[in-house]
Amino acid sequence: MDRNLFASLLAGLLGLSSLGTLGFVFNAAPNTPPPGKPAGDWRLLDPITYENLTVFPVVSSNDRDTAAFLTLDEGLATGEVVVREQGSEGMARRRDGRDGIVRPTYSTGASVNQLVLINRSKRPLLLLAGELVSGGKQDRIIGKDRLVPVGADPLPLDVFCVEHGRWSAGANFTDAKTIVHPSVREQAAVESDQNKVWGAVRGGSTARPSTRNSQVITVEAAPPVLAGTEISRTIANDAPTESYQKIYESRSVRNSADSYVEELQRRFPRATSGLKGERVVGVVVAYGGEVAWSDIFASSDLFHQYWNKLLRSYVVEALARPGYREVASRDDASEFLRNPNGRVQEETEPGVYRWRQINQGRLSLIELDALDPKVLTLHRLLIHRTS
């Protein structure tokens, strides 16, 4: 056989062999996958920096209409959303469409990690991981982003406790207008670990020293304002049940957080004014030189409904982390917005929502899509994990 012809045949066979292994390579994912493409039609504005916290406003010219969705704050405030302990008398829909008090058909016996929720409104209910509901036998936080459709049966809702030392009847569940700070939210949304949630509540921050190119950044850092010793003192004096709300709304914490929040609230409108054809739909957040977090929404309206409690959560995290002098760059923040390449987990309720999570290294992307009347990504959470 001609030597050139033999070489061509051998190359072809090798090529076919390689094609046969593509499925395996795709499923396994290489150790160092290439960076993903930038997601969305977003643009970053100039950063807003105060102490060790930097916020990059994210703007978009594609501002979607999200008026059809109800937030937890709205629903609990108006009574359109009801949350109960498992096993208690609950709200259910009768065949005539009215609501009434009935004995539950779901499992009896209260549970730390499950509540029962009913959406009585005429709008789908949007829930974000880390939102706090106060009352019942313990204060809890929502475990995962999801939508609750109109007319749904009472929903067994996965939650995490953020009040370790109480298991006794309390007031009805109410909206605390709080979303827990990133270290706690991460343990619920990504790790799904109750013990880690409690540890993050008690410890303030689970962040490790900032690294870049595998080298520890050696910059001078002030000790955290909200150090572990301060949290322990607050628990002893003001929050014996280790209630998240009582710890992080205590006078000592509030005094530090309020001035921080007020300064950033004053700077944010000034930094985002004068936009033409674009609206603010989210933020990228950095602590010192480390870009760590991003919350982006489908609309400016939805972003502003969450902004106050999100900002406070970012500030609490900043108070619990060392005050590194290094400041993250705009290029780092832009790079952070790229979609990670990695293993995809997905959950779907047909015709209602699709939830997916992608992990690559210490990056985790979580997206929540509404599926009706058309596909719309309501919330995009990107985390540089601390654990």
Quick overview of this protein structure:
The chain is α+β, with helices and mostly antiparallel strands and 387 residues long. The protein is 30% helix and 30% strand.
Report the β-strand fraction as a percent range.
25-35%
**Total helical elements:** 10
Give the number of DSSP strands: 24
| Fraction of residues in H or I helices | 25-40%
What spatial form do the alpha-carbon principal axes imply? globular
Unreliable spans are: 1-38, 90-107, 212-216
Sketch the major β-sheet: 9 strands, antiparallel
Terminal residue distance: 60 Å
Q: What multimeric state do the chains show? A: single chain
Rounded average pLDDT: 84
Radius of gyration, in angstroms, nearest whole number: 23 Å
The structural class is alpha+beta
- Structurally, the number of domains stands at 1
What this model shows, in words?
The chain is 30% helix and 30% strand. It is of the alpha+beta class and 387 residues long. It has one domain (42-91, 104-384). The strands form six sheets. Strands 1, 2, 3, 18, 19, 21, 22, 23 and 24 form a nine-stranded antiparallel sheet that branches. α8 packs across α9. Mean pLDDT is 84; it is low at 1-38, 90-107 and 212-216.
Feature tags:
387 residues; disordered N terminus; nine-stranded antiparallel sheet; 24 strands; single chain; alpha+beta
Which SSEs are present, and which pair or pack?
Elements lengths: L2 H18 L1 H7 L13 E3 L3 E3 L2 E8 L9 E2 H7 L2 E5 L4 E4 L5 E4 L11 E6 L5 E3 L3 E4 L5 E3 L3 E3 L6 E7 L12 E6 L2 H10 L2 H10 L7 E2 L2 E2 L4 E2 L5 H11 L5 H5 L2 H21 L7 E9 L2 E8 L2 H21 L2 E2 L5 H7 L6 E7 L3 E8 L2 E8 L5 E9 L3
Parallel strand pairs: 4-9
Antiparallel strand pairs: 1-3, 2-3, 3-18, 5-8, 6-7, 8-13, 9-12, 10-11, 10-14, 11-13, 15-16, 17-20, 18-19, 19-24, 21-22, 22-23, 23-24
